[in-house]
From TrEMBL:
This is 4-hydroxy-3-methylbut-2-en-1-yl diphosphate synthase (flavodoxin). It catalyses: (2E)-4-hydroxy-3-methylbut-2-enyl diphosphate + oxidized [flavodoxin] + H2O + 2 H(+) = 2-C-methyl-D-erythritol 2,4-cyclic diphosphate + reduced [flavodoxin]. Residues 263-349 form the IspG C-terminal domain. Residues 7-247 form the IspG TIM-barrel domain.
């Protein structure tokens, strides 16, 4: 059982963050908000996949103004990603965004930050302070030996925090990302010891779907297991849908969120006499529509299947032309291989009908 570190609570649109709220999954669209219909479609596609907060890059004033239409059509809270020009943040607030991601050190000084705060405060719009190892301020790099390090990253984050605190604004969350996983883990752990603001987790520039998934699972998962983290984004080079799916899997694997049915399957061996790869993919796809928190096993042989997957609510194990359906390790029936998946879902459907 993971005990989460207590943090302050903030509200981003309809989503609560920190103070014991469920850890939320975020992503970022690839579309410029100027293409509002395309941006809305991408946001809502992510929402259908389970994304709970979405970030939108705002590179120009035209994009900031377009956020009004995007926000009106989006099914989840929209966070504006602002760099360098504080006026983009002001316009994004005017467009009705639910949150801002800014770097207080790169929008032109404390006076500009104050202008953003004064506009955000009446609407209680939270601000995420984002620090990345690859873009630390020159004075931080000089002070900490010329290379990114965890202590330097933490100090950069705290400098930004102090700016907002001096302006009496504490509706913020923090991120302190790196592409190097051990550095990212160390930095977040040190920051968590110093602040009680909610933390947004991520391995930045993690890579393609395969490599980025592994790096993110290690980095984000390690921190979540420590009880650190209130939101997350898995940054992948690819369709953002993968970011959402991986984020949800990390959370469910640690028992921190329940997203419905889950599947376990064996890696196969020389005893396997069925096409387990295709069978597992078919079962996984059919399970996506099931919201009940059941665990389903797809095993390659009847020798070890029911025993190894004894904790599964339902399962199947292949044989030579036939296979078994089992429940909690007990064999229910033997059926021809071609009927195995359908027989499994007959048992699942009967159980769900009885429980509803």
């Amino acid at each position: 059982m993971i005990t989460r570190k207590p943090t302050r609570g903030i509200q981003v649109g309809t989503v609560k963050i920190g103070n014991g709220a469920p850890i939320s999954v975020q992503s970022m669209i690839t579309t410029n908000p100027v293409k509002s219909e395309q941006a809305i479609a991408e946001i809502n596609r992510l929402a259908e996949a389970g994304c709970e907060l979405v970030r939108v890059a705002v590179p120009t004033m035209e994009a900031a103004k377009a956020l009004k239409a995007v926000k009106a059509g989006a099914h989840i809270p929209v966070i504006a990603d602002i760099h360098f020009d504080y006026r983009l943040a002001l316009e994004a607030i005017e467009s009705g965004v639910d949150g801002l991601r800014i770097n207080p050190g790169n929008i032109g000084g404390e006076a500009n930050v104050l202008a953003v705060i004064e506009k955000a405060k009446p609407k209680h719009i939270p601000i995420r302070i984002g620090v990345n190892a690859g873009s630390l301020p020159a004075h931080i790099l000089k002070e900490y030996g010329g290379h990114p390090c965890a202590d330097g990253m933490v100090e950069a984050a705290l400098e930004h925090v102090r700016i907002l605190e001096r302006l009496d604004y504490r509706e913020m969350k923090l991120s302190i990302k790196a592409t190097d996983v051990p550095l990212m883990i160390e930095a977040y752990r040190k920051l968590s010891d110093k602040v009680d603001y909610p933390l947004h987790l991520g391995v930045t520039e993690a890579g393609t779907v395969t490599q980025g998934t592994i790096k993110s699972a290690i980095g984000i998962g390690s921190l979540l297991a420590d009880g650190i983290g209130d939101t997350l984004r898995v940054s992948l080079t690819g369709d953002p849908i993968h970011e959402v799916e991986v984020g949800k899997t990390i959370l469910s694997s640690l028992g921190l969120r329940n997203y419905g049915a889950t599947m376990i399957s064996c890696p196969t061996c020389g005893r396997c006499q069925v096409n387990l790869f295709d069978m597992a993919e078919i079962v996984e796809e059919r399970l996506k529509s099931i919201k009940a928190p059941i665990r389903v096993a797809v095993m390659g042989c009847v020798v070890n299947g029911p025993g190894e997957a004894r904790e599964a609510d339902f399962g199947i194990a292949g044989g030579d032309g036939k296979g078994i359906v089992f429940c909690k390790g007990e064999i229910i029936k033997t059926v021809p291989e071609a009927e195995l998946v359908d027989a499994l879902f007959e048992e699942i459907d009967a159980y769900l009908a009885k429980e509803s």
